[in-house]
Hints:
The protein has 250 residues and is α/β, with parallel strands linked by helices. Helices cover 43% and strands 13% of the residues. The protein has 10 helices and 7 strands. The strands form 2 sheets. The protein has a 5-stranded mixed β-sheet with strand order 3-5-4-6-7, with helices on both faces. Strands 1-2 form a two-stranded parallel ribbon. α8 (194-204) packs antiparallel against α9 (209-233). It is globular and about 50 Å long. The termini are far apart.
Amino acid sequence: xxxxxxxxxxxxxxxxxxxxxxxxxxxxxxxxxxxxxxxxxxxxxxxxxxxxxxxxxxxxxxxxxxxxxxxxxxxxxxxxxxxxxxxxxxxxxxxxxxxxxxxxxxxxxxxxxxxxxxxxxxxxxxxxxxxxxxxxxxxxxxxxxxxxxxxxxxxxxxxxxxxxxxxxxxxxxxxxxxxxxxxxxxxxxxxxxxxxxxxxxxxxxxxxxxxxxxxxxxxxxxxxxxxxxxxxxxxxxxxxxxxxxxxxxx
Length: 250
């Protein structure tokens, strides 16, 4: 992705569909396009289905958007913005949001999913880029942003360094850590897992000070439990393997 993004903006497109329906929409668009280099980043393992086909088409057409069903800040200011780009980062972000809802139900979180990576660039730099006003509306101008990304973190900083709220942007991504291990442990080794994301939220939202000690201890304990479990059984814990998104009402 880093190599492609260095090329002429009028030619390159990079997409990270988070589920099967968004992949179908992105693939349909790319196969109909001409004179572009389209890069689609998608896994081959079973993944949750987040959007129905109609919603997937709308989301992919925009390239970026708030997932209202996963957010709880509508009508008010968010305390933190949880951004995700890629299928595994999307899972881990939503799992982190679920954990935070239990730890701090009063916390206002905005979940933003990015399908079209080039929306992060200013519109002056790329045809798909967001205007500064639209970017600020989504990501705010002063709230912490926890960004889970499928590739190298510094690419996100390169694309957003001119944005108003770049100083509050914290990116988790791939950092060349890996071995023959479980799928979730690969994510843990790169600090991209739900527990590290929860810890990032706690560290960056000042009003969470009163729960910080207990919440951070809980996530540390979970990481230790994860390590002990995979060492003993050679697979991820059932609560990781079988995790599904549950709304506030379930």
